[in-house]
């Protein structure tokens, strides 16, 4: 029998093959590099947002309280604009699945659609505000970026104050008629009558009906503007003052304008 064979070389080869299969340290480091960077960025972001500014005696330029409030409000509306655009995009594309003729809407086009719709609503609201000012002249005053009813408006006026103001205007019209062959003035703010008499205490001007002779008949000669509310005082041609509802006054004026 020959000498026993040694399996040492085979064991060595098996160990070398096993070692080659193990991951290298550089590979392990390269594998963990990206998560490490992400975690470091996240930690730094949280730290920068959480740490409060410390002046430490140095000059620090910051926004005023009003500017900060406006910036907060602006950022809120901008964020709402982007969120609403995303909602519009989702709803539009959901409807497009049912109505196949509708084109697909991406986020950029959704932003344009929401912006255009907002501008249209702004124009409509501006027209409504302008119509309100035309219907109730002088009844609104500017306060900041908006408007509110003028202090001392019709809500604070008693009927006695309104009646007294209309009676003073009547005296001015009758005095004008005596000096002009019994004819009423052609319109408000004419020479011969004090301009203040034409101003309604609640805002606006008194309305004068044409072709009405003072002291003759019972046609409406002067009536309060729409800022007076649902019920208005009217001055008749015979000098009497009556309180009429808006509907009744409109019907009487329509009848009076008929030829």
Q: What number is the mean pLDDT?
A: 77
The fraction of residues assigned to DSSP E strands is: 5-15%
Number of helices: 6
What are the secondary-structure elements, in order, as H or E? HHHHEEHEEEEH
Find the count of extended strands (DSSP E, 2+ residues).
Answer: 6
Helical amount:
40-55%
Low-confidence stretches: 26-34
Largest sheet: 4 strands, antiparallel
Overall radius of gyration: 42 Å
- Briefly note the structural class of the backbone: alpha+beta
Strand adjacency order, main sheet? 3-4-5-6
Global morphology: elongated
| N-end to C-end Cα span | 149 Å
Write a concise keyword list for the protein shown above.
about 10% strand; two-stranded antiparallel sheet; about 260 residues; single chain; 6 helices; 4-stranded antiparallel β-sheet; alpha+beta
Structural notes for this entry:
It is a single chain. By secondary structure, this protein is an alpha+beta fold. It has helices at residues 8-21, 25-50, 65-98, 107-135, 159-179, 246-257, and strands at 140-143, 146-149, 207-208, 220-223, 231-236, 241-245. The protein is elongated, with a radius of gyration of 42 Å. The N and C termini lie far apart (149 Å).
